[in-house]
Every structure is written in structure tokens, then in C-alpha cells.
HAF family repeat protein
Amino acid sequence: MSMQRRRVPILAAAVTAGVCGLLPAPAALAGAPSMPRPAGAVPTHVIDLGTPFNAFPGADAYVVNDQGVVSGGRNSLSYGYNGFVWQAGTFRPTGVAPKAINRSGTIAGTAPAHYETTASRGDQRLPYLGGPLVIGGQRSTASDINEAGTVVGWSTVDDGVRGGGAVWFANRAVNVGTLGGQHSSAAGINDRDEVVGESDLANGTHHAFLWRRGRMTDLGTLGGANSSAVDINNNGQVIGTSETAGGASHAFLWERGRMTDLGTVRGDATSEAVAINDRGDILVRSSVGEAVHGFVWNAGRRQDLGGLGGRGTSPAALNSRGEVAGAADLPDGHTHAFWWSHGRIRDLSGPDVTASEASGLNDTGLVVGGTGELGPDHHAVIWQLTRP
């Protein structure tokens, strides 16, 4: 389980033909002094990564670990992925859209190639559980990676085989099975190789599951029909989203056989769990209509993330210190990346920036994301924080 995980859509793109090896960062991308910040902003040093390897249109940074390894990119028109890995000013290309990164810098993600997608550990393509040998017949995606390099996700299976939730130990794919239905998928893993996700039941609904030592446990629901788990920490605490008896979708915490409803921000209708750390901090996204808010839940106490003066606050990532990164609306309707710590939210962008969003953060003060309007001028960036 990695706190730097950023769950992003499977993107189609490919690395630029003929680009290989490591390239030094241009001098213009080496970083620049921070621009004047509005009230509530935190002092930062901004490293503009640009659009590495001709990513089009634009590029984002999605994941970062405590050693400062950053990965991101953008889909391309050739149904591949223009991805990059950056560390200490040096880039290398990758065709893998990142989903998670561990402390050693190994990235779990998905390599798209027109009709197929393949779960990957770094640049290693992982085997499928099965599927027909036809165009598009075999597909897989990766969702998470632990410190040992074990990857979880989903894969096609052979006809007549139940499951699809996959655990890749080294180069061996294991099917976690189901709770009696046809399909399953795995979303998170901790350092004890405990896996969580969702599985179909025989009646057609789906439930969150916990898989360990080859055995799958049904985690139940908050009284409704369906649930799914998205993350697990090293203490065995599981988070996810479940339907309630009243039909709403709420974030939950499952611990020692009990599922707890984490509720919503006051006035909101639904919520979903985003991430959990080993302290038991749970990041939750709450919403009503198109308005999105966020809070951190721990031991029954909820801390609202607040906002930057606009309508919504969308949290994206949580680190082991309980700090949060994401994007929030400004009073003028623009959206800026934010960093939240100890009850205070801070704007990471200056007044000259029309749009920015944060996708991931580590424990050493690095936040990653993108800046600029969507298009060729949208750049991947790193904000290096100066903590109060």
C-alpha cells in the first residue's frame, strides 16, 4: 500500500519513437523562485517539468515517493502513453501510465497499446490470467504495489473461469477468485500481502472483499446491496464505499469484522473513501450534486478540509503524516492545487496561474500535479514545500 498512490483513468498513449535512455532536464525546467502568493498560500519552490517526450496535449505528474522519484505523462493520439520518470533533474521515458509507486521507486501502472492494456511493474509487462488469443481478447490493469513489489489489479480470464482480481508475485499471476459470482477486481495491497477489492456475488450484486493467504472474506455492506474496497493499511484497516439501507453511497472503514459509516460533510448526499495511512487517517471525498468537499476521518473525529473560497474542494492524495493534496475552486471560478496540513489549507499557485491541480504528495514536502489550462501548455510540475 502506497500513500503516494494516485488512481487515474487508463490512458492511451505511447512514448515518442526513437527516444530512449536518460535525458538531462533543460536548464529552463530546473525550477524557479516562487511567484507572489495570495493570502493563505504556502512558500514553495516550483519545478516545471514541462511536457517531457512531446506529451500531447500537455502532461501531468501523478505519483511521487519519498526519494523524489516522480512519474506522469499523458495519453497520445497513437493509442499509447507518453510517460516519464523523473529524479534529480533527469528524465527517462516510459509507456506505463502510473497508478502507484513504492519506496524503491518501482511503479505499478498500465501500458496501453491500441486494443490492449497490460498491467506493468516498472517497464516489465505482467502476464495475463487468461483470455482469448484474439485482438483485444487479453487485457489487464494495475492498481497498487507494496514495498516487496507485489502488484494487484485486474486481468481477463479464460472462458468458464471466475475471477479476474489479480495478484502478481514476481512474474506469477494469481487469481483471487470471487464471492460466488463471475467477476472480481483487486484495488489495494499492504505490506502483509493482504489484498482488497470488489467481487460479484451469485445474486448479481458486488461486495468489498479482503483476500489473504488464498482466502477471500466478504466484508458486507452498510445495509445496502453493493460495496467495494479501495485501500488497506498495514494494520489491516480497510476503506471503501458502500450503499446504505437508504440507497446513498457512503465511505466506510472496516476493522476487525465491523464496518463503520464515515458519513459526509454536513449537507452532502454521498461520500467515497480515497486513501488511508498507517496512523488510521482516512481521506474522504464528499459531494452533493456537482459540489465536492473533503475531510479527514480518524477515530470518529472528522476534520473538514475547508476550501480556497470557491464552491468545491477535491482531495486527491494523503501521506503518512496526515497531509492532503488536491484541487480547490477559487472565488473567481478558477481551480488551484492545494496542500492541507494540521487543519489549514494552503494555495500552491500564485495569482498569475489560471489553473492547477495536485495529484500526489510524499512525506518530505514534495507535491506533484499539473499547471495551466488543458492543452499543449499544460505542464507537469513539482511544488517543493517550505513547511511552517
The chain has one domain: 23-385. The radius of gyration is 20 Å. Confidence is low (pLDDT under 50) at residues 4-40. The chain is about 0% helix and 50% strand.
